[in-house]
Amino acid sequence: MKNMTVKANKTMSCVLERDLLDGPPPEIQAALKVLSGKWTLMILCQLAKRVARFNELKRTIPGITQHMLTTSLRELEANGLVQRTIYAEVPPRVDYRLTPHGRSLKPVIEAMAHWGSLHLKRQKAAR
Description:
By secondary structure, the chain is mainly alpha-helical. The chain contains seven helices and three strands; from the N terminus they run αααβααββαα. It has two domains: 1-36, no CATH class; 37-126, Orthogonal Bundle (Arc Repressor Mutant, subunit A). The chain has a three-stranded antiparallel β-sheet.
């Protein structure tokens, strides 16, 4: 894990040192393409906690519609972050879990949550 952190820090410093006049670096564009959906991070957060069925996800993500959850899960599956498992039962049971590639986002999500916490405290102190 420490090697990943060192590698990530080196990559990040290289990205930040580049001239950004031509727009965001390809690494940032690739990450945003996968993670920029309104519901994506909320779904990933829920699946980072446990394997979940569709209705469990819908209940735990306030405001998401069935259509948006379906669309978001399909995109996450197509990007290799989520695995969908169908069980041959009556009625059929389907669950969703993070793939190893999806689990690799956990430190990123935790870092964003930490930053968000600091940001909220800063906003509160500014009032």
